[in-house]
Design goal:
Blueprint: E1 62-64, H1 72-85, H2 98-102, E2 122-123, H3 131-137, E3 143-148, H4 151-162, H5 173-180, H6 188-193, H7 202-206, H8 219-232, E4 235-238, H9 242-252, H10 281-290, H11 292-311, H12 314-336, E5 341-343, E6 352-354, H13 356-362, H14 366-396
Parallel strand pairs: 1-2, 1-3, 3-4
Antiparallel strand pairs: 5-6
Helix pairs in contact: 1-14, 9-12
GO molecular function: galactosylceramide sulfotransferase activity
InterPro entries: Gal-3-0_sulfotransfrase, P-loop_NTPase
Subcellular location: Golgi apparatus membrane
């Protein structure tokens, strides 16, 4: 162990080939989520299946490390809907706990969350990976989900997001920023004292990589850390291949295809001309020097993602194509009608029904889903209190 947190499109069947973050047509589009549990036929299992093996029980105990500006907001909506549908108990940051969930803090405990009378089984709000503390906080057997985006595209999105309320100078402010930092070298003092930088290695930091490693040239140490941290995650989603990632998540966690349906309205793309300003090769290289660890982890998780996808066999790609078509059909139905409709079973999914409630929830955002999960938490607490009262009453009569 290198450190101790207690002390401290369908046709694209290959990894991203462009190291500079250039997108092909259709890439980088990230979308969202929906409604309530599907109606199953008589005798049907609620669990999805793959063409290779039958799944067991669906995973209903997980932490999603929500990395800013990676499509994590869209992913939040998918996971929040699943959590509501499966009666999961959310660790929602308590009034003053945002910083406690957002920084590696050995003292992270139940006080950081809205009180629950049962084990927490869900974290999906912004939080820095702190596996030791989270394992202690969550119910036994917690699984972890991560997400990464190409570092240059992530940098573009973060840069303009932070400046959306300010007057950005004309021209190429992104390129100018990189030009000013062409000779930047992190100081050891900064690495030790500053928790993170939005412009440098932010994804690596959020996913749990130690900052002391960011300036390291020890390749064996870096590779060992990649393997160690990588082993914490059951799956790391790739923003540029978000729907492919959802299908692999479905298979990995034994979920149904209904569980990963999402709205097509919430598209994250470079729709702002300022975000797509061209950068020179020198400016791109400067960014690589600013965020070397982000590039390393992206290359690592991108490669391992496609290795896993390849092991799924050609059937995986058939399922991805089917899922994209099905999801579009569901969205189209909700847009033009929203009435009750049954979608037939397939090789990868059971028959399910959507209705007006489903379609309404298809447009829900973070606020609505957070409220739904907190309401669910309150109901869980009320039910436990009611049972406790019943037990005490039974004891008093004997």
């Amino acid at each position: 162990m290198l450190w101790n947190w207690e002390n401290a499109g369908f046709a694209l069947k290959r990894p991203l080939g462009d190291s500079d973050g250039t997108k092909r047509s259709g890439e980088g589009k990230v979308t969202v989520t929906t409604g309530h549990r599907p109606t199953l036929g008589s005798g049907e299992s609620p669990n999805g299946t793959t063409s290779r093996t039958s799944c067991g029980r669906p995973v209903t105990n997980f932490v999603f490390i929500k990395v800013h500006k990676t499509g994590s907001g869209s992913t939040f909506l998918v996971l929040a809907r699943f959590g509501r549908n499966h009666n999961m108990t959310i660790c929602y940051p308590s009034n003053n706990a945002h910083m406690r969930l957002s920084y590696r803090n050995p003292s992270l405990d139940r006080s950081a969350c809205t009180p629950a009378l049962r084990n927490y089984t869900l974290i999906i709000n912004h939080a820095i990976m702190n596996k030791t503390a989270m394992d202690r906080l969550m119910a036994p057997g917690t699984r972890y989900i991560g997400i990464v985006r190409h570092p240059l595209e992530h940098f573009r999105s973060m840069y303009f997001y932070q400046r959306q309320n300010s007057k950005v100078k004309k021209g190429n402010p992104l390129g100018s920023y990189l030009d000013r930092n062409v000779n930047y070298k992190p100081r050891k003092r900064d690495i030790k004292t500053k928790p993170f930088s939005h412009q440098g290695n932010f994804q690596a930091y959020t996913l749990g990589f130690p900052r002391l490693l960011f300036g390291s040239r020890n390749r064996s140490q870096i590779e060992e850390t990649l393997r160690t941290v990588g082993s914490w995650y059951s799956i790391v989603l790739i923003t540029e291949y978000w729907e492919e990632s959802l299908v692999l998540l479905r298979r990995t966690f034994c979920w149904t295809m209904y569980d990963i349906l999402h709205t097509t309205k919430r598209i994250h793309s470079l729709d702002n001309p300022k975000k797509s300003v061209p950068l020179t090769d020198k400016q791109k290289e400067t960014h690589r020097k600013l965020s070397p660890m982000d590039y390393l982890i992206y290359e690592h998780f991108n490669r391992t993602f496609w290795e896993r996808a390849a092991k799924e066999g050609p059937d995986f790609w058939d399922e991805v194509a089917y899922f994209k078509t099905l999801n579009l059909e569901v969205n189209h139905h909700c847009e033009i009608s929203g009435e009750k409709r049954s979608f037939p079973s397939s090789k990868w999914s059971h028959e399910f029904v959507v209705d007006s409630t489903f379609c309404e929830e298809l447009d829900w955002e973070t606020t609505e889903w957070s409220s739904a999960l907190l309401l669910q938490l309150e109901r869980q607490n009320e039910e436990i209190r009611r049972k406790q009262v019943q037990i005490e009453e039974m004891k008093s009569t004997h």
